[in-house]
Predict the structure.
Amino acid sequence: MRSPSTILVTGAAGFIGSHACVELLDHGYELIAVDDYSNSGPEVFARVEEIAGRFVGAVYELDIRDRRSLSAVFDRHAVDAVMHFAGRKAVGESTRMPVEYYDTNVGGTTSLLRTMHDHGVHRMVFSSSCSLYGDASRGPLDEASPVRPTNPYAASKWACEQILADVCHRLPEFTVLALRYFNPVGAHPGGLLGEDPSGTPDNLMPYLAQVAVGRRERLHVFGDDYPTPDGTAVRDYLHVMDTVEAHRVALEHLADRPGMQIFNLGVGRGSSVLDVVAAFGAACGSPVPYDIVPRRPGDVSELVADASAVAHAWGWKPTRDLADMCRDAWRFQQLNPAGYARSAHLANR
Ligand code: UD1
């Protein structure tokens, strides 16, 4: 089987999707980029092209649940494989809007599967999440750890995984690699591409960066009474460049064996919220002000990956550490203090 060379990327304008586009262009792949811009905008592709020194082959604004439009894209291009990032991802929001989360994440995935199948495309790298492990504070989690989603976002990712596994089981032409990310953060090292959430950031690293640049006053640290060394919650942070490198390596392994395989993507090392605050302060040259506030509902104490399976299967390991993640996130924030849309860079292109 030839290795895939034309990749359709859903959610291509998002944080991880846009970095994946750079990684794929850098490695000679042809890209079909699809996004509905519900949490992003088309301006990101000028930056992707500037970094990669190549054009993104084709860009389509569409919602992947719109099967007619999606089908037209597959009619027009000979797609070899799909990288599926599109979806809603805010945990808190998912508890308030469960129907939207199931509709977008599960409905989007089944629409994509249907369209792929109709067009004879059967290879996918799927964006899954460590959140489906739920509350698990007993050491590093491997892929066989029990799954206990505690919110609709996590449950929607679990539902997608189950659907993909069943489809692979019933239809042997399908091959899926599901990657369960722990906490991808950071930015492309050049400072052009990074995480640019609309509105108030939900996640720690973009919030920290906005405090450091003076856009927000202080970070709220959600809880210091967890059973962790400094009382703040522990996560396994992974550089977004390592995250997307793993996706590109996954493409090369899609043909290794049929069916569905699941891998954790993490560094295998835990950092507390206060560790991240300190590392960010070191990266930006001054301490980031914060207050301790009550725990955020739905948060868990500790989530750290046992990331050895992917290393064993593909000989691949992340190479960037927390200092790299903070340095790159800070560079992006400094160069784009108000995000992509209002940044002076490329405004006149
Ligand atoms: C969550 C999901 C993850 C998902 C990600 C994307 C879980 C367990 N994890 O990650 O699967 O991919 O969202 O949105 O559901 N924090 C603060 N102050 C802030 C923001 C965060 O103290 O302003 C703390 C949180 O309490 C947490 C840590 O920082 O302990 C990381 O939070 P965040 O960046 O939001 O990621 P997760 O909630 O771990």
Q: What stands out?
A: The chain has a mean pLDDT of 94. The first strand starts at residue 6 and ends at 10. Residues 89-91, 129-131, 154, 183, 202-204, 207, 219-222, 233, 235, 273, 296, 299-300, 303 surround uridine-diphosphate-N-acetylglucosamine (CB under 6 Å).
